Amino acid sequence: MNPSARYAFLLAGGLGSRLCLLSEKRAKPAVPFGGKYRIIDFTLSNCVNSGIFDVGVLTQYKPGSLRDHIGSGRPWDLDRNRGGVQILQPFQGSEENDWYRGTADAVYQNLVHVRRKRAEDILVLSGDHVYKMDYGPMYEFHRDRRAAVTLAVTTVPLEHTDQFGIVEFDSRGRITGFQEKPGAGEARSTFASMGVYLFRREVLEMALAEDADDPRSSHDFGKDLFPRFLARGIEVYAHLFPQYWQDVGTLDSFYRANMELLAPRPPIELADPEWIVHTVSHDLPPVRIGADARLRTSLAANGARVEGQVERSILFPGVVIAAGARVIDSILFPGVNVGRDAVLTCVIADKGVDIGEGARVGGAVEPGETPAPNRLCPEHLTSGLTLLGTRATVPPGRVVGRNVRIDPEATDACYATETPDGAHVPSPPGASVSHGAEIPPEASTSRRAES
């Protein structure tokens, strides 16, 4: 098959509420990851590395930062006169178009973009997973089986099966059962759908048209289309992907996937010259390491400046660690400033956060400990992470506990007398933060004293 005839829809518009404030003002696929990337970079790079240069990115929720990041698609070689990348947002004004009602409806409303394409099969992808996959073998498997639909599947721990669509299949790969997020103890296998679907074009168009007219449908691929296929005896196949794949839809999985990059042999190799993860790169100076600095088991992007100590942490562009400061087991997004003698442990700090001199933020959770969950987000902040929103400030000398949420643009005046485990520090009245533009490196360093 001619790779130029391949077309992919990339689903990137869902509400990522389980990432808490990291995705409250940005689409989940636009969340920074791994020191210099966004989550969506992995799927976009998979496309171009697999020879797919015609991609429609479906987005709806908070699309600004995603649209700004992708732009014309040049970093992925997707700025093309024919094909390339298109940002496909819902629009109102006709009977045929409205807000997307689900993943299947999002693709249905954009089928017009494939009607003049030569693609015989349509690839549908999720933009919020971290993995490196050549889609070529999946196309070959799909064609060899003459499948109507093929799903990529991977194995997940039994205790996590309630978070995924769980698949059963026979020795040839034909799917015999599908469970959408089964309850605890109800999963009949540990093979999970990866959110990578390959449809024969006419099957996709027929199924989506029928689904659009069903008032009982939630218009979701996993909940509605695949069970309907199986009930009607349509042959759906599972293509097993045995390599690393990570859904980073929760704070804990996001944090764990980042920390796994620091292993001596990380599960996904970012330095692989045969499979480059493309992204938008900024013209920043090299990392600067001070005379008394120590940087161990960490990643540091261009523009970072380290005068203190960094252990098992990830520093995005423009991060500054002042003399005497310690950063441990933490993830610092672009433009974060850590003042003299401050200590950060198990912290995720969004763009432009400023940590005052001598502050103590977060802390390790010892075996057997159960720190109080966050009082605003008890379902998201329970494992001990402390989360700081964009351009939040931690006052000098302030002690901040674990499972704490500090909202965007929080100032000194927003803090109560104490900030214990599980506390919430609100934004000041009238604060409105956009995650669209990067923190300019010159702005992130201009207010900092030399070490």
Set out the fold topology:
Layout: E1 7-11, E2 32-33, E3 37-38, H1 40-49, E4 54-58, H2 64-70, E5 84-88, H3 103-108, E6 121-126, E7 129-131, H4 136-145, E8 149-155, E9 165-169, E10 175-180, E11 191-200, H5 201-212, H6 221-231, E12 236-240, E13 245-247, H7 251-260, E14 288-289, E15 294-296, E16 299-300, E17 305-306, E18 309-311, E19 314-315, E20 320-321, E21 326-328, E22 331-332, E23 337-338, E24 343-345, E25 347-349, E26 354-355, E27 360-362, E28 386-388, E29 393-394, E30 399-400, E31 405-406, E32 424-425, H8 441-446
Parallel strand pairs: 1-4, 1-6, 4-5, 8-12, 14-17, 15-18, 16-19, 17-20, 18-21, 19-22, 20-23, 21-24, 22-25, 23-26, 24-27, 25-28, 26-29, 27-30, 28-31, 31-32
Antiparallel strand pairs: 2-3, 6-11, 7-13, 8-11, 9-10, 9-11
List keywords for this structure.
451 residues, single chain, alpha/beta, 32 strands, nine-stranded mixed β-sheet, seven-stranded parallel β-sheet
Characterize this entry briefly:
This protein has helices at 40-49, 64-70, 103-108, 136-145, 201-212, 221-231, 251-260, 441-446, and strands at 7-11, 32-33, 37-38, 54-58, 84-88, 121-126, 129-131, 149-155, 165-169, 175-180, 191-200, 236-240, 245-247, 288-289, 294-296, 299-300, 305-306, 309-311, 314-315, 320-321, 326-328, 331-332, 337-338, 343-345, 347-349, 354-355, 360-362, 386-388, 393-394, 399-400, 405-406, 424-425.
